[in-house]
Amino acid sequence: MAIALERLEAAPVLATLEELRARIGARFPTRGLYGVSGDLLILAGEVVTSSEINRNRISIVRVLSRVLIVAVTAATVVLLVLAFRSAVQDGPEHGVEWLSLLESGVNDVVFAAIAIWFLYTVPERLRRAESLTLLHELRSLAHIVDMHQLNKDPERLRATFTPTAVSPTLGLTFEELEHYLDYCSELLSMIGKTAALCAEESRDAVVLDTVSTIETLTTSLSRKIWQKITVLNEVRRSAGA
Prior knowledge:
Blueprint: H1 10-27, H2 32-90, H3 95-150, H4 174-200, H5 205-239
């Protein structure tokens, strides 16, 4: 009995991103994290649009490449037949001439095979280039989210914490810091989901490996954030907040 496999659909991902952006805006409308959520929403839209455009464009390119492959194959066969027919009619007198003809024919076949392979892989290489560009932007965005939470240290909310002259201002209460860190974790998760959308339209090994790398990165960064949330809860209990 065949099992129906679920696909990661773009519409729910975009809807979740819009909801997350609205939640961040309701609590932190002036924080940079709100701007990052908008950048991610735009980038997710580009991923969806790019997939739709590429699907049509690559279909056209694939047809053209197959036509050119047929043309190259036909031209190679015609050239080999004409060369062989000419050699038979002229009647080479020495084996060296036949050897030269054979070498020329092998070279023609090799060059034709290279051209055919190049034309055959053009559609996938175009898809790969587009996907890798978007994935690079998503990976950069993950690091930007990490930069936003980097100095949000729960230890600075302890009553015993002594700041230095260069200590950054936290400016967040226990509750606000918890929501802020939680939003950072959710943004990282959605970056991973947006990257996975690129894999829905591709079976390219390089693209799939890059998507897996981004998912591993976002999971690792999110784990650090949840460690901070755990510390925050301990600090809150000790402060009786």
